[in-house]
Amino acid sequence: MTSTRTVTVAGGQLAYTDSESPVGPALVLLHGWPQTHGCWDQLAVLAAPTHRVIAFDLPGIGDSAGLHTDGTKHQIAAVLHEALVALGVAKAVFVGHDIGGMVVYDYIHHYDNAARAVILDAIIPGIDPWDQVMANPRLWHFAFHATPSLPETLVRGRELAYFSHFFDPLTHPDHLIPQARQKDYAAAYATPAALTAGFDLYRAFPADSEHNRKLKACTTPLLYLRGAHGIGKATTNLSTYRDGLAVAGNQAVTAALVPDSVHYLPEENPVGTWRAISQFITD
Known about the structure:
- By secondary structure, this protein is an alpha/beta fold.
- It contains 14 helices and eight strands.
């Protein structure tokens, strides 16, 4: 991947890296919380021989810190679309992890330049089993992050310690995210604006849920992936997520598990994650 660069959109600059590979369709990668585009580094190396790989920092975070949105995935998808038009990307495969997966879900329902889409270990607001998952006490942080001002007050200056609480338990013990990488992520959220932008992603969930429930049918082929070691800890199973997406109007949904991974699939098992994505793209 090249060094980080920026593309001008309404309201500021969106940061991204670009392999500039001249072959294959573009592969657009969106990270989750509390990460940056760096979570895709290993997978991008695997994909670059056959795809132009473009990995973005979400608005307000990392090198996109100067770009503000309201945190709704619909607004972020609009920013992403504007950026891709500016970059001349006419057709792409969209891959999103966690919050990035929520953005991908919105994107494919509103824009026609998605050839295929992949969502990695994300719960889509408003789509079954959203209500069931929200009742799981293990996801206490959803409500905490949505509280006005409080998470900023308690986390500011302690980003690494707080983020590690999520990284370490939600990663396969044999494939932990290195401390150096965790420090990079903490630094990317260390400014007041970036920290708030991250929590605003959660504050927008009620609006996201209402929006998603009103969406119409979508014909974009969609692959839903979860970590094989993570799904065992969940209160739901893989078919529940697949069926929820299908009932919501996604007409071509498949689902699979990535071995040796819990939640951070592209970093825990980049080879296995890319294998699943590549097979889906080429089928």
